[in-house]
Amino acid sequence: MDYTLRLVSKKRYTVSEIRKKLSTLCKNYPEIEVSIINEVISRLIELKYLDDDQFVKDYVLSRIQFKPRGISLIKRELQGKGIDKNIVESGFENLDYDESKACRDLIEKRTRLWNKHPIMKQKQKAFQFLASKGFSKEAIYTSLKSCYSSDREQDY
Predict the structure, then answer these.
(1) Contact between 123 and 148 (Cβ < 8 Å)
(2) CB within 8 Å of 94: residues ≥ 6 apart
(3) How far is CA 154 from the centre of its chain?
(4) What is the distance between the alpha carbons of residues 73 and 76, in angstroms, rounded to a whole number?
(5) Could you say which of 1.20.120, 1.10.10, 3.30.200, 1.10.3470 is the CATH number of the domain covering 52-91?
């Protein structure tokens, strides 16, 4: 219990991540019984140190605000952390997130890097960049259309 309290005092973890850490601890220290893992996890949940629902909500909000990503990539990241698919989906239910606006903002930040290229190459680079961030094709096409409108294509 002391080990897990030290862990959760430094950063937030999911139930699955704590379970993996405790399993590793039990392998490294044979005197610690594996059966205690469930007891420790249930106690941490009872003390509200572990809450996958709240973790998902906080993670999604921080990802959107500080490192904009597409919804599909955020969902994959959460599932990679061992969170159940239903909990991940419930974290996105009341979310008001405009992927197209996030795409436009990212394009505007990166435009100065791509200005030396022709418009078609700029669009291609923007598409690849946004796709790597997990944005949907519809959001990417919408943002490309608005950022590279006909008045800018005269440079081509």
Answers:
(1) yes
(2) none
(3) 38
(4) 5
(5) 1.10.10
How many residues are there in the chain? 156
Rounded to two decimals, the pTM is 0.79
Residues 26, 103: Cα–Cα separation, whole Å: 45
pLDDT tens sequence for the chain (156 residues): 888 888 888 889 999 999 999 988 888 888 878 788 889 999 999 998 999 999 999 999 898 889 889 988 999 999 999 999 999 988 888 788 888 899 999 998 888 888 888 989 999 999 999 999 999 999 999 999 988 875 444 443
Question: 144: burial class by Cβ within 10 Å (0-12, 13-18, 19+)?
Answer: buried
CA distance 61 to 4: 25
- Round to whole Å and give the CA distance between 156 and 145: 15
